[in-house]
Amino acid sequence: MSKLSGKVQTVLGLVDPEQLGRTMTHEHLTMSFECCYFPPPPGDEAVAVDPFHMQHMHWLRQNPYSSHENLLLQQETAAVHDELLAYRKAGGGAIVENTTAGIERDLPALRQLAKDTGVHIIAGAGYYVDCTHTEDTRKMSVEKLSDIMVSEVLHGADNTDIRCGVIGEIGTGWPITESEARVLRAAAHAQTKLGCPVIIHPGRNPAAPAEVVRILQEAGGDIGKTVMSHLDRTIFDHGELLEFAKLGSYLEYDLFGMEMLNYPYNLVVDMPSDSQRVKTLAFLVKEGYEDKIVIAHDIHTKNRLVKFGGHGYSHILKNIVPKMLLRDISQHQVDKILIDNPKHWLTFK
Ligand SMILES: CCC(=O)NCCS(=O)(=O)O
User: Fold this and answer.
1) 139 exposed, middle or buried (CB, 10 Å; 0-12, 13-18, 19+)?
2) How far apart are CA 184 and CA 127, in angstroms?
3) Predicted ipTM?
4) What is the CA(102)–ligand 1 centre distance, in A?
């Protein structure tokens, strides 16, 4: 039995799973999203490059990916520090920090944040979407990629001794590229060796999550120990959602706080409101999936921080939980979603 077995691995070391408390399973504390810059709508070029002002905050909410400045979350560590203190005060205990290679993971910053705030931070191993893969990454075999992920968990990543506690978010697009498929197979192999949690960023198509599961399963992955992220912008039809849920992964609604009219990466998508997200959670609970739901905000741009008029990391605890209780999700079920499900997922086999 490995020394990781039965434990959760944070950036400060192994902890007993009971220590985590309420856990957001998909956040970013420091990262760059420059890889996904999207040009502003015609006529909005000037506001897109203006320094941040209060009068731009609504524009940024509608066009978060069209301001280079907004994509540099790594510049806001002081604000994130304060928001983590507020998160603890609101009853939060842990955060899974999903930044992987390609979007500027900063493990020393995560370790410092964990030390200074007392929030348990679990860091992610592996690779983001294809457009961020380096030439080296593209050339690597499944075995080599898997060895690197195993080493990031067992020994530390990015030339530090800071160890990752999950594999992911592993980035995939639609269709899944050859390089992304290799990374997925490598993640499954690493998971088999380590008995560790895995988390996936699927492409923006309703068929994408099931295709990822198929690839992971074929490579021996443990789907019951895998989180499928971003379902709120991916599967809308309730029948299709139940078909996907049957495959056995955790079902993650992780864009709480993000409300926008035009989702630039896929204009076919109507980004749901928080009320609609809660309705979908209530539906899944009614269908018997209360042991499979996890939730988060996936903060990945500056405008979502409280410092810039955003909702911050405490929005779910302060605003969404009361709404869940109003919509027939019991306190016991809320606790499963925020405490028990993340704990079971994050505990090494
Ligand atoms: C790095 C953060 C991330 O990938 N977030 C998901 C954004 S979206 O694909 O849902 O637009």
Assistant:
1) exposed
2) 9
3) 0.98
4) 13
CATH code, domain with 219: 3.20.20.140
Please indicate, yes or no, if residue 63 is contained in any of the structural domains.
Answer: yes
Evaluate whether 165 touches 122 at the Cβ level (below 8 Å): yes
**Mean pLDDT rounded to a whole number for the chain:** 98
Expressed in angstroms and rounded, the spacing between residue 70 Cα and the centre of ligand 1 is 14
Q: Among 99, 130, 230, which residue has the most ligand 1 atoms within 8 Å of its CB, making it the best to mutate?
A: 230
Structure tokens at 284: 């899944």
Q: Evaluate whether 108 touches 160 at the Cβ level (below 8 Å).
A: yes
pLDDT bin (cut points 50, 70, 90) of residue 167 is very high
- The total number of structural domains in the chain stands at 1
Tell me the residue range of the domain where 60 lies.
21-346
Ligand 1 neighbour 300 (Cβ under 6 A):
yes
Q: Which ligand 1 atom minimizes the distance to the CA of 300?
A: 2
Q: How high is the pLDDT of residue 134?
A: 98
Q: Residue 236: inside a domain, yes or no?
A: yes
- Report the sign of the C-alpha dihedral through residues 311, 312, 313, 317, in that order: negative
48 within a domain of the structure (yes/no): yes
40 contacts: CB under 8 Å, gap ≥ 6: 47, 48, 63, 66, 67
Q: Which amino acid is at 161?
A: D
- 3-class secondary structure, 306: helix
Largest CA distance in the chain: 61
Question: Hey, whose CA ends up nearest to atom 4 of ligand 1?
Answer: 201
Tell me which of 51-60, 151-160, 196-205 is least confident: 51-60
Structure confidence at residue 2 (pLDDT): 86
pLDDT in tens, 125-158: 999 999 999 999 999 999 999 999 999 999 999 9
Find the mean pLDDT for residues 323-327: 98
| Position 2 in a domain | no
- Do residues 114 and 12 lie in contact, with contact meaning Cβ atoms separated by under 8 Å? yes
CA-to-CA distance for 92 and 94, rounded, in angstroms? Answer: 6
Q: How many angstroms does the Cα of residue 136 sit away from the middle of ligand 1?
A: 24
